[in-house]
Design brief:
- The protein is an alpha/beta fold.
- It has a single domain, classed as P-loop containing nucleotide triphosphate hydrolases (Rossmann fold, 3-Layer(aba) Sandwich), CATH 3.40.50.300.
- It has 11 helices and 12 strands.
- An 8-stranded mixed β-sheet has the order 6-7-8-3-9-10-12-11, with helices on both faces. The chain has a 4-stranded antiparallel β-sheet with strand order 2-1-4-5.
- Helix 5 packs across helix 7.
- The longest helix has 18 residues.
- It starts with a strand and ends in a 10-residue tail after the last strand.
- The mean pLDDT is about 90.
Length: about 325
């Protein structure tokens, strides 16, 4: 339903100018996000996942970075053309973000109460007393014991998992329409990871929040996401419904990622599959398929030109010469 469409990213391009040349960190990324949907963005480190989402809320440091093209349309208005005041009202209020490392995302010199209350007062217009009550309520929802006491503590008095819960509570305290979660479990042990993901899923479902989940873990995506985008070298190379992508991956890179995941439901005594080679250096990357040096199905055309995105219906699309006209 088009009425449910809240975010459209259209041909987004973010480049960084460094001494060695031009880094096309995000180069023509497009996707849609609907109300209540969880969208997963996966790929190896350096594929452009985090830069894509920092670009959405216009948090690219300039210099050296610059958003050079594209649109990020939120309820019909392009975020990239908003004034600084409009952006400030949007961040943390309509679009919120949980950053990658909970250890460094909170200011160590300020109490948790100060950091949470400031956000709620700014965006919700509550006085400090009401804002503190709201913050305590959110900490309780996030599963932090004795929130009335712990809200007045400093970040160093919390464990890594508890700090991440604080970040989730802070991110959802203003009832945002979109929550961007950038590797929300990367610094946590496995049991805490499962708790944090379950918490995000439970709270966003309760609040009706759409989620963009950035991760390199296909297991996380399989359990949480409705839609999946696979990124490689700054571009989305495949997208579709998560179940469909897992059932029938199309791009050789997606096939490699899925085949490299250990399967507990099979008695496979073969060596675990791995994709050969390394991700490309994206500085001054030529206009070809960047995956061809690692691809077992590479053709001559792959070395000369980047393939266009081929739509296959039902939101499914892939950028690969195997599915382009004349190569099917």
């Amino acid at each position: 339903m088009t009425d449910d469409l809240i975010l459209q990213v259209k041909n987004l391009r973010t480049y960084f100018t460094v001494d060695e040349g031009l880094v096309k960190a995000v180069d023509g990324v497009s996707f849609d996000l609907r109300k209540g949907e969880t969208l997963g963005i996966v790929g190896e480190s350096g594929s452009g996942k985090s830069v894509t989402n920092l670009s959405i809320i216009n948090l690219i440091p300039s210099p050296p970075g610059k958003i050079v093209g594209g649109e990020v349309v939120f309820h019909g208005k392009d975020i990239l053309k908003m004034s600084p005041n409009e952006i400030r009202h949007l961040r943390g209020n309509k679009v919120s973000m949980i950053f990658q490392d909970p250890m460094t995302s909170l200011n160590p010199f300020l109490k948790v109460s100060t950091q949470m209350i400031e956000t709620i007062v700014l965006h919700q217009g509550l006085d400090k007393k009401a804002a503190k009550e709201k913050a305590i309520e959110m900490l309780k929802l996030a599963g932090i014991p004795a929130p009335e006491k712990r809200i007045d503590q400093y970040p160093h008095q919390f464990s890594g998992g508890m700090r991440q819960r604080v970040m989730i509570a802070m991110g959802l305290s203003c009832n945002p329409e979109i929550l961007i979660a950038d590797e929300p479990t990367s610094a946590l042990d496995v049991t805490i990871q499962a708790q944090i993901l379950e918490l995000i899923q439970e709270l966003t479902r309760k609040l009706g929040t759409a989620v963009i989940l950035i991760t390199h873990s296909l297991g996380v995506v399989a359990g949480m996401c409705d839609t999946l985008c696979v990124m490689y070298a700054g571009r989305i190379i495949e997208r579709g419904k998560t179940d469909e992508v897992f059932e029938k991956p199309l791009h050789p890179y997606t096939q490699g990622l899925i085949h490299s995941v250990p399967r507990l439901d099979r008695e496979n005594k073969e060596r675990l599959y791995s994709i050969q080679g390394q991700p490309p250096n994206v500085i001054d990357l030529p206009d070809c398929c960047p995956f061809y040096p690692r691809c077992e199905k590479a053709m001559d055309i792959c070395k000369k030109k980047y393939p266009a995105s081929v739509g296959l219906g039902n939101g499914r699309a892939v950028s690969c010469w195997l599915y382009s006209e004349g190569n099917k």
